[in-house]
Amino acid sequence: MQRSDVYGEGVHLNVVKLNPRQACAIESAAIHNPSSKVFVLFASPRFKNSNSSDPIIDAILSYKNVYLRNLNLWTYAAGTPVYDLLKDGALFKSYYVLSHISDICRYLTLWRWGGTYLDMDVVMLRSMEDVPPNYTGAESNTHLAAGVMNFAHDGFGHEIAEECLLDLQHNFDGSNWGNNGPGVITRVMKRICQTSNIEVMQDNTKRCMGFRVFPIEAFYAIPWPEWSNFFESNLLEETMTRLKNSYVAHVWNKHSTKRQIKTDSNCAYSVLARTHCPRVFKAAGEYF
């Protein structure tokens, strides 16, 4: 039986599903970057059910610059430095296989096409269409992060993407959650910038050969140990103030995924979502 066969009441085996928070990341990117195409990539086959309506999917597809695409991981990686991680099974033996597939897909996509990668536990707060290519962001004064990255599709940007794939090939570690995502861009930029000092890298494009490392407040103004600040109404004003210079609010899904909020609440996450992903927020119902 083929994967596209229909089961039960016209429901595909692998019908595409996104939760409201994932969809919010997509909508906010589409709203703030109307001249850019926003691609949502699925590493296993997904199908849109034509026989019923999903209000969350309908909300994001109401934007003409949003596209849902399947990719075949094996084909996508073929002919690249990371193909052997699939071929020898190292990727699939990982303790964090889904996270590490995501890591490989983000670097592969930037290597193949260039552009901007965004995590799906973010809310984009303003446009990045006028930001020159080739950048990432510091998460702390000791590490860069891989939640927002941009590489040009050619020239120096493509060289950086190639360096990232080579680093993955040589340093992949299935027992370490962060080694193959933030670890990759941190190691590569230490070599490019010729320093291990993350503070020295920030906004120092001359030292980093034209590559920009944004300061912490650009993408990670609220650090992961303080993820709950997004969900506390009494911290609304403080949290919004800390985000005033940010392009993106990162809500740290790894830690916050089980924390529900009502759509009529007045915490920072609901206020941000109400403003920056209004169609998804409306479609979410009682809880976001």
TrEMBL record:
GO terms for molecular function: alpha-1,4-N-acetylgalactosaminyltransferase activity. It is found in: Golgi apparatus membrane. GO terms for biological process: glycosphingolipid biosynthetic process. It is a single-pass type II membrane protein. It comes from Musca domestica (House fly). InterPro entries: A1-4-GlycosylTfrase_dom (IPR007652), Glycosyltransf_32 (IPR051981), GlycoTrfase_DXD_sugar-bd_CS (IPR007577), Nucleotide-diphossugar_trans (IPR029044). This is Alpha 1,4-glycosyltransferase. The keyword Glycosyltransferase applies. Transmembrane segments: none annotated. It holds the Pfam family Gb3_synth.
